[in-house]
Amino acid sequence: MPLNFAEPFTERTPRVVNAAKLHRAQGRRKAGRFLAEGANAVEAAVATGAATDLFVTERAAHDFREILTAAGHMDVYTHAITERAAEHLSETVTPTGIFAVCKPVLWKLGAVAKARPRFVAVGVGTSDPGNAGTLIRIADVCGADAVVFAGETVDPEAGKVVRSSAGSLFHVPVVRERAINDVVGQLRAAGLAIVATTMDGEISLAEAGERLARPTAWLFGNEAHGLPGALVEAADYRVSIPIHGSAESLNMATAAAMCMWESSKALYGPE
């Protein structure tokens, strides 16, 4: 059915109003839905069957015709909206004009552990949504089997996390589990070595290669406080990234990228 841009939904249309409520955690919990914005996220949501509804401006309908065609094949309801409505739905300065209302995609920790993963990234206390989304994206690039957000963390289905993941939220199993000890216990029981990233680890990242060829769960600490001391001690071993310049530390997502790339090479080869 062709989109009706002669009478598009406005920012006051109930469907648009309800979609905008998904910006808030309470709105997502109540509706059992979340909102994806931008071409990469919406395309992945459609392709994986997570999208239930699309909202698109006339400009975006022209720019992203292939996404709309795919949405039609997946029986996703697509609604024409005004540019003002797009501004109402967007959390960015310059809206792309395409949005998807999505079913929840988060996994249970037990389901991930049961799948016998070889390579898992664990963000402990991750509070920055940009870093959370980037961690998911890097894990996807490096072939990780799952990403787990442990402790009090940002919601992986929050808007900025979804955008920062650039569609990878829909590709990689992602878990949110507040009980950190349960995360460590279940992953260890699934046969993964628990590896903490610290400034003073007894093994440098360059020396960890052979160890990373076995199933591994990387622990990455909070952006401001790092990993809790008890969790560092509970790890099977601790890895540090040597800093040869004057910087005091690495951004969490940057450190995660370096560590996960080494795991990727150990498991899948250098290419």
Principal-axes shape call? elongated
Cα Rg: 20 Å
Q: Give, in order, the helices and strands.
A: HHEHEHHEHEHEHEHEHEEEHEH
Overall number of strands: 11
Number of helices: 12
On the 0 to 100 scale, the average pLDDT is 95
Distance between the first and last residues' Cα:
45 Å
Strands of the widest sheet, in order across it, are: 7-6-5-10-8-11-9
Low-pLDDT windows of residues:
none
Relative strand content:
15-25%
Helix content: 25-40%
**Structural class of the secondary structure composition?**
alpha/beta
Task: Give your account of this protein's structure.
The protein is built from 12 helices and 11 strands. A 7-stranded parallel sheet has the order 7-6-5-10-8-11-9, with helices on both faces. α8 (129-142) runs parallel beside α12. The model has no long low-confidence stretch (mean pLDDT 95). The chain is α/β, with parallel strands linked by helices and 271 residues long.
Can you lay out the helices and strands and say which pair or pack?
Layout (H helix, E strand, L loop, with lengths): L13 H7 L4 H7 L2 E4 L1 H9 L3 E6 L1 H6 L1 H9 L3 E4 L2 H7 L8 E5 L6 H6 L4 E6 L4 H14 L3 E5 L8 H6 L9 E4 L2 H10 L3 E5 L5 E2 L11 E5 L8 H6 L2 E4 L11 H17 L3
Parallel strand pairs: 2-3, 5-6, 5-10, 6-7, 8-10, 8-11, 9-11
Antiparallel strand pairs: 1-4, 2-4
Helix pairs in contact: 8-12
What are the defining features of this structure?
271 residues; 4-stranded mixed β-sheet; 38% helix; alpha/beta
